[in-house]
Amino acid sequence: MSDVIRLSAAELGAAIKAGEVSSEEATTAYLDRIEQVDGDIGAFLHVGRQAALEQARAVDAKRAEGAELGPLAGVPIAHKDVFTTKDMPTTAASKILEGWQPPYDATVTARLREAGMVILGKTNMDEFAMGSSTENSAYQLTRNPWDTDRIPGGSSGGSSAAIAAFEAPLATGTDTGGSIREPAALCGLVGAKPTYGGSSRYGMIAFASSLDTAGPFARNVLDAALLHEAFSGHDPRDSTSVDAPVPPVVEAAKSGDVQGLTVGVVKQLDHKESTQDGVHQRFQETLETLESLGAKIVEVSCPSFEVALSTYYLIAPSEASSNLARFDAMRYGLRVGDDGTRSAEEVMALTRAQGFGPEVKRRIMLGTYALSSGYYDAYYGSAQKARTLIKRDFDAAFEKVDVLVSPTTPTTAFPIGERTEDPMAMYLADLCTIPSNLAGNASLSVPCGLAPEDGLPVGFQIMAPALADDRTYRVAAAIERAVTERDGALIARSPYAV
User: Fold this and answer.
1) Is 155 a catalytic residue?
2) What pTM did the predictor assign?
3) For this structure, is 80 an active site residue?
4) Can you give the residue range of the structural domain that contains 430?
5) Residue 35 falls inside a structural domain
6) Which of 44, 141, 350, 482 could serve as 337's disulfide partner, Cβ 3.0–4.6 Å?
7) Which of 23, 137, 155, 436 is catalytic?
8) Longest dimension (CA), the chain
């Protein structure tokens, strides 16, 4: 079992294609691993053992018939519970959708199936993707495999924990304000936020529609690029989908050549006084590594990034307030108090009171207030103007540099419960990741070492212009290669490594 689980996704796909291992054997190994360790980690909300084995056998049958298999055919994957799946429940980790079985697949789900990937199950998350720690799930707590007393990041914490605990080689996530990059950084993984519109939102339960982006998690850069390529591309069912070719991310991940690249360090995201010492140390070392590999390092100022956090926490809750109005107890999901004596409005109010968790209610109230008559221009309208300034700062910076960089998170993974009573402290975890969501450009987090004071993973964030996702993979591959040569494979040092 452990031999199969140690393989990267690319290696496993090649082994299945060559007939050296069957997809059923690989899938069984991962399902057994989930059974063995997920009681301690809590990464999965639903495991579809029988369906996964049937998918695996179908891939093996195709291979036996001589069909040409893709690079990830037969490879198991963990799927965030925000994507609709017609053969498994989809809850977005909320009680208001408990037990809901969608009648259709999300585009991302459908493309995973088309690529021959085997969906192991659905992973835990912050309810409706609202959170930075996966402590806001209505169902269970997910723990960081590097230290099970700490959070795995959020909102895609189930996906990041599943890979770090070797319960899956790949996973999907969504990134609205850092919900892929932050958990990737805290769990020692590669996590990418593609260009907004580069991956389809059809069938992805909405939090903030102008920000939500589906992206990949993996243990290494090439695996992330392969998954990125597998489910990205234009989708006519998504009005915000970009009708352009998928950037050559796989080719870039295999290259890793940064010779001649100009790398801009964002002054506003590199606060030594507000960044953990070990995170700052590893970030500075990685800059030196890039310089030694032939990149030019310069400092860049993006003044509007100072207001990115407050801008995000007006725009995202406003869009959430609108999007979550659809959960009205009338058509699907939870229904409370429908005893024939209450009006539809009363049933709706009772259902929402019981079905939504405290963080979701907080953001709905924030958003409803920001959109209310008399306050719209002062709050939501002003935030949209600030968003334009943030995008202009990015555009100006990218005229001078090829990529921008920063620490992914100001700290390593913090203890479970440490910030649950302090929403502002929780929101600050997304300080470095939010600007890219507001601008819609490409961004990626790659591990750059362990913090010396606590031995926990540190993430290095790379940002590139829209539709230049390949640049992020190119730089990430160079960093990964250098860190591996220096320290060995980072993920191999995880307590749950096999």
Assistant:
1) yes
2) 0.97
3) yes
4) 2-268+397-493
5) yes
6) 350
7) 155
8) 73
